[in-house]
Write a structure and sequence with these properties.
Ferritin; Ferritin-like_SF; RNR-like; binds fe (ii) ion; single chain; oxidoreductase activity
């Protein structure tokens, strides 16, 4: 079981919402309306860990170790939403999301293969780590900069925890896991983000609700994510390249191969599909 060790590791570095955020450093002159609005959207997006948790527990009924770990992940993601709401409560109370706005992102996700979802969320954590690092640079108000830096570190640790479960899956499921990870890896590392921001909250997850079946489509401002990435934090090709590099690097370590680019990974995926033993 990985859960006891992951619990211990994550608890050892856990930050305190009251005492580890430099609330007293707030500088009102450094917070624009535009920046405050974006914090509200991020607070609601983080709340989407709730439906994701319901999906994880449903699709991993046979895996009590992973399900137990999700209790830690869920707690930390809800805390991300909470710290952003606490920031707004203190400094822009009119922008605190309403309970209805939060509840709007709680909807059923269609069942999906657990291994693919695991890889999807691994890539999502890597991506969010980079988005939040950029957000910390873009924001000018010191407290929110510190909050985004704090969240970015948590997201990186979440990615590390998912990677542990991916390693375990390779031992247990072999090529079935390799195939699932390579498939989702190609998807998450290939499209230029100008086409579509590739994060779990921006993917369609319930065919019966289409097109309102992404978390982003259920925000008060469904166009927010693209504007945040393009015009605010300006997540450009260089940053996108860093995300892709981290995904390929980690999959390379996992598979004992080296992937210079997504085409390499796609070739490997096709070899797996043909049933050939990849060299
Ligand atoms: Fe988060
Ligand atoms: Fe996370």
């Amino acid at each position: 079981m990985l859960y006891p060790e992951l619990f211990k590791q994550l608890e050892a570095v856990r930050w305190n919402l009251d005492t580890d955020i430099p609330w007293q450093s707030f500088d009102a002159a450094c917070l624009s309306d535009e920046q405050a609005q974006t914090i509200k959207m991020n607070a609601i997006t983080e709340w989407a860990a709730l439906p994701a948790t319901e999906m994880f527990l449903r699709d991993n009924r046979g895996d009590s170790d992973f399900s137990a770990f999700i209790s830690v992940w869920f707690f930390e993601e809800q805390k991300h939403s909470l710290v952003l709401m606490e920031y707004l409560r203190r400094f822009r109370p009119e922008l605190v999301p309403t309970e209805d706005e939060l509840h709007a992102v709680r909807f059923e996700f269609d069942p999906a293969p657990a291994l693919e979802t695991l890889m999807l969320h691994f890539c999502g954590e890597i991506r969010l780590n980079h988005w939040y690092r950029r957000a910390a640079e873009w924001h000018t108000e010191p407290v929110i900069k510190a909050i985004y830096e704090t969240l970015a570190r948590d997201e990186a640790r979440h990615g590390g925890a998912y990677l542990r479960y991916m390693k375990r899956a390779l031992v247990r499921c072999g090529d079935e896991a390799r195939t699932a990870f390579a498939k989702v890896g190609v998807l998450m590392a290939s499209a230029r983000r100008t086409a579509q921001a590739l994060h779990p909250t921006n993917l369609h997850v319930n065919a019966s609700l289409f097109p309102n079946d992404t978390v982003q489509s259920r925000l008060p401002d469904p166009a927010w994510l693209e504007a945040w990435l393009d015009r605010q934090i300006r997540f450009d090709a260089d940053w996108e390249g860093r995300v892709v590099e981290r995904i390929l690097h980690n999959l390379g370590l996992l598979f004992g191969r080296s992937f210079a680019n997504v085409q390499d990974l796609n070739r490997y995926r096709k070899e797996l599909g043909r049933g050939a033993q990849p060299a």
